[in-house]
Q: What sequence folds into this?
């Protein structure tokens, strides 16, 4: 079964929060906040913007001083599509392609030296990610107004922090064996 296209809904969500974004600004969202849990390349975003414009989900405007720069806005239809998509419950588990877990799964012996190599590398990776997300939290959500203004984003960040802390604690118990 073909995978359902999610990118147009992400773009609609970005434009609902940041109307008038350029393609570059939309693409940059995948290197910051959204990129923490969803990836999309520059080469995917621009063709999707064209399809969305053809489907009347978004409108494109240019600046009279610079007609090469395009600014994108939600259309009424786009707003309706985004609202409909958000209302739909998620009825499937996320695809999990965890290479660390896959490698660990194939180790049979408790005293295999590869375990400590894998665990230490994973601990470093997750600790660095935890530090990065804590910095993002401090930058983006230092007061209740910031939390209230982007509450869904705040919740996702809290979930990511909790998950990382739990994984780090689990890895430390393996390392102590």
A:
């Amino acid at each position: 079964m073909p995978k359902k296209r999610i990118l147009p809904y992400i773009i609609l969500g970005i434009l609902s929060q940041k109307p008038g974004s350029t393609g570059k600004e939309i693409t940059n969202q995948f290197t910051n906040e959204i990129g923490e849990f969803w990836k999309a390349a520059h080469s995917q975003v621009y063709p999707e913007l064209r399809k969305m414009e053809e489907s009347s989900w978004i409108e494109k405007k240019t600046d009279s001083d610079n007609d090469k720069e395009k600014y994108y806005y939600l259309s009424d239809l786009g707003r309706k599509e985004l609202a409909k998509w958000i209302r739909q419950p998620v009825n499937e588990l996320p695809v999990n392609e965890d290479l660390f877990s896959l490698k660990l799964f194939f180790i049979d012996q408790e005293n295999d030296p590869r375990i400590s190599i894998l665990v230490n590398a994973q601990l470093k990776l997750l600790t660095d990610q935890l530090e990065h997300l804590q910095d993002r939290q401090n930058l983006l959500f230092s007061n209740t107004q910031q939390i209230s203004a982007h509450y869904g984003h705040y919740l996702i960040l809290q979930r990511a922090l909790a998950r990382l802390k739990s994984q780090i604690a689990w890895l430390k118990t393996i390392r102590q064996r």
